[in-house]
Amino acid sequence: MDHIDAIRTPASWVVVGLDNGGTCNNATVLDATGQFLVDHLVENPSLVLDGPEAAIEQLAAALTGILELTRTPRTLVRAVGLDTPGPASAAGVISSKGATNFSQPDWHGFDIRGALEERIGLPVVYNNDANAAALYAHHRHFGADAMERSSVSAIVGTGLGGGVVEAGRVISGAAGMAGELGHVQIPLQDVLEQGQPVPRCNCGFAGDVESVASLTGIRNNLLPYWLTRFPGHPLAAEPVSAAAKALRSYGEKEDPLALSVFGQQAAAIGKLFTIAANFTDPAMYFLGGGVVEAAPRFREWFLQRVRENTDLRREQAEVAGFALVPDLDMAGARGAAVAALDSVSTAALR
């Protein structure tokens, strides 16, 4: 990567992106021209299960490590972008009820953005991880036209995260919870089989997207039903949590039970995108999460099923596209860096 070795000038300032996860932090550096200075994962343990103090120190260590790796003087860093799993406020305060990765009481209502800013002495710009991935997908796809375009992203993981990007910027909302697409309730006709129980979400809703299109939805709702339709299936002998995690490998082998489950997930996301089409009419629909990390044939099949279940008007279908989120394992950190770069650039124009 020759640009890492290039002689820097005081004008060549940078921002850093930090993606905080349940196991690891991932870091990247983005310079003022929009060039990423690393093209691979750069990780360190996140230690979020050890509590806020340990986790903040690890984020600070991630910052130091990525600057050393890219030979970037700290004096050139204008801002740091941070993303974490939600739920959290737009200002980076973890929900008062905690979250999957922030289950200890010390995390409840903790201002992770403010704590990191105080620790490192640099401005910190916050997004949740799904919004960061959505922002990166948007800018990577549209390039120089990113600030002129709009997109909606669905990120399928343990839950279903999302992001709505308008004119190149994430819509965060009054409380910072815009783009929580997993908890949009959808019509279930053409999604469920006749007699299939209405799926329930951990949030308390019935029939929202996450109750179908997520690992949790597979475990709690879809797999128990479909195992009754495929008696003797090998996954029936496994604990349901292990079976849910193994299901994608069966889908890659075109196993009928697995394709039935993932077909319902794709249909649910298609219903979500149909709703999005009537709210924001985006130029692009992005799909991310575990399906992106699957074998190419399977992920293209899944994306095609999503497309087929998205009901667009003819005028919309002529101008809108569907794509997978690129570089998924790096998308969070890169999106966090893009948000930081935009924040610095916007401030410079004021």
UniProtKB/TrEMBL annotation:
Q: Which family does it belong to?
A: Belongs to the ROK (NagC/XylR) family.
Parts of the chain that traverse the membrane: none
Identify the PROSITE patterns for this entry: ROK
Pfam families to which the protein is assigned, alphabetical: ROK
Question: Can you say what this protein is called?
Answer: Glucokinase
